[in-house]
Design brief:
By secondary structure, the chain is mainly α. It is 69% helix and 0% strand. It is built from 4 helices and no strands. The longest helix is centred in the N-terminal third of the chain and has 20 residues. The radius of gyration is 17 Å and the shape is flat.
Length: 86
Amino acid sequence: MKLKKWQKRAIKHGIVTVQDWEKLKAQTYAAGAKMAENAEQHGGIAKVNREILKELKRLNRLHFGKIPKEFKPKRRELESKLKDLD
């Protein structure tokens, strides 16, 4: 599910509220459920799940903005933290 032009414009100008985000997420989940029912047509359930996750991540990026690079932990740091937990 892609955002329509009016939705993008509303987001850009700060018209969209938190309730609207919840509505967009709900629409994405509903679209995902429909795609999951016909997973064979869309290339399997793994591909459907990947598409839904991509869409939800995109919505979050639009909502909260990108995470600045200095706050993103590097992959090796994450792996070492996970090893420390073991």
